[in-house]
Amino acid sequence: MRNLVVLCFMISTGLMAQGVNTCRAELKNDTLIVENQLIERKYFWNGGNLITCSLTDKTSGKVWKTTTKKADLDFPGQSEVGEKAQFSVKIVPENAVAPAHLEAEITYTLDRLEIKRVLRLYPNCAVIACDLYYRGSTIAFWLQPGINLADMVNLEQLISNNTVTNAPVIEKLELPGKHWQLSTVEFSDITDRFNNLVHKEESISYRPNLYRGNLLFAHDKVSDEGIFILKEAPTSNVQLAYPGGDFLTEFGTFRVIGAGLNPTDLHPTEWRRGYGYVTGVYSGDELNRYKALRLYQRNLRTHKLGRDEMVLMNTWGDRGQDTRVREQFALAELEAGAKLGITHFQLDDGWQSGRSSNSALKGGSLNNIWDNKNYWEPHPEKFPNGLTPVLKRAKELEIEVCLWFNPSKDNSNQYWEKDADALIGLYQKYGIRTFKIDGVNLPDKLAEVNFRKFLDKVSLNTNHNVVFNLDVTAARRGGYHYFNEYGNIFLENRYTDWTNYYPYTTLRNLWMLSKYVPAQNLQIEFLNKWRNVDKYPTNDPFAPKNYSFDYLFAITMFAQPLAWFEGTGLPEEAFATGKLIKTYLQHNTKIHAGQIFPIGNEPNGKQWTGFQSIGNVKEGYILVFREDNGAVKSSVKTWFSAGQRVTFTAVAGSGKSFEGQVLYGGYVEFELPLKNSFALYKYVVK
């Protein structure tokens, strides 16, 4: 085969300093090599329809060689050899939200189906990510959900059936060995309905089995080496063109199935993005797999002080809806917020001229929004002077004003450009750059494509300065592993009015997600515990009244705190928590700069639990909670190594500074004198 020429590129001094020059993608004869300092993957070119030859963990030196002759990407009914292949490489410079990285682009055709795969590499990150795009047409595939294994009556059928499913395969690794320990993780969003957001399944890889979830960890028990695959897609229960599962495994063969679109979703000339994947390597203990995953996730969006760090107050949590929203109310809220110490104040639904279906008043709608060209202008009666007086006072108080926004969803988001222009206009006129994006529903591929176009247009036309708070409380949305480059995640609505706010369940949701999703990407709520006390049973030990306001705020500190209440509705005693918030703001950027993972036991209202932010091998932060239990002291499982001596300096809460010895299993003994109390420590490993 004639050598294809890799496009040349210049590497600036600035990019060299970031190490992006250590990332490489090179096509020689029939072999494509993609690598950085930590990972290498070699492919047989196969006309662009790549076949993995080997995968190397450069840290440990482990090399997995494959013997397969079938392509990694497989669409049933399509040709297996690519045609009209093109290959190019470029360095994407650092911008306001993303670090510099390398992209290798491969385009080819399988019959009439055109495929574009973009491989992404980041310096010092042991993963290779892949974005997939499609256009053209096909008469084949894709969606039959696969056979029931119970109907395969004998071993010969299992062995002879290579794919076991008629769904498209977007990634495949065939690795040697038969002693693979699997961990698959399925997530739930739609948090208005669900309060158990993480579902983990442990198994031994054997004959063909189908698993649901966005994450697969596979650990070779013989070599103590492992791989992980992240399916970059919405949660399993809302994915488009879903084939009934996400991972198909058989001994050391691991497939990712489900492309996120059907043949009818293809466009003859426009690339349509499907679901992508990230494949990474690690060796050794469990922490290494999570750290490798987390390093990739943090590369998707660069956190910046002032833009991405926030203690945001949104008044919707007190259920006033749009009845109070107006200029004088907003000004009073700013004063209360400043007294408490918030950094951002968000006007929710009701600031705009149009009346939404969430309004407390009759006649609201979110359909045909653009029949009213002034829908997203400030309400002329509520804000007769526009937003200028509110913004002026906010600036004096050093608080950033944010807004709620509900994109129009008519005909699969066909008016996405008008929606984008509305936000760009608000940014240009008022300087508003943080928007809660609510009411989204992506029931089909075109709606998803147009929604991404909306986000992209706003981002590009504001130099990526806009932050989207992406609501995942209802409908088909992006979940935890899709659209991550655009901002943070508004996780859940909880209200004392409906007695569905329990502090330990909020803590539990953050604790369970934080192993797999960066905690600093999640907005986590704390509420006015003095409201609706009478609606909770008097003997309910987990009612909000049984916790200090400091404790409720502390639950949110390793995430992005969301003050989900009206500041003007707080009693005077609540503002004492301003001291804790002030202390937190002196440390939050360092806390969030680390890799945050859960420690202790799963919260259930009666445990010792918490979080650890690993800044480097020597320093970081620990947040410990003693829930409602009788133990003044407890050994808490951490991510330290046995035998280490660690100095813990008390920063906030009721803990005292101490030096401790790490016991076998990573346990450290902590002491908190009171039930339902917490301690924030800065630690140094000696």
UniProtKB/TrEMBL annotation:
Tell me which positions the record assigns to the signal sequence: 1-17
Return one Gene Ontology term, BP aspect. Answer: carbohydrate metabolic process
Which source organism does the UniProt entry give? Runella aurantiaca
Q: What is the lineage of its organism?
A: Bacteria, Pseudomonadati, Bacteroidota, Cytophagia, Cytophagales
Tell me the keywords, alphabetical order.
Glycosidase, Hydrolase, Signal
The molecular function GO annotations come to: hydrolase activity, hydrolyzing O-glycosyl compounds
> What's this protein's name?
Alpha-galactosidase
A UniProt-annotated Pfam family: Melibiase
Keyword presence, Aminoacyl-tRNA synthetase: no
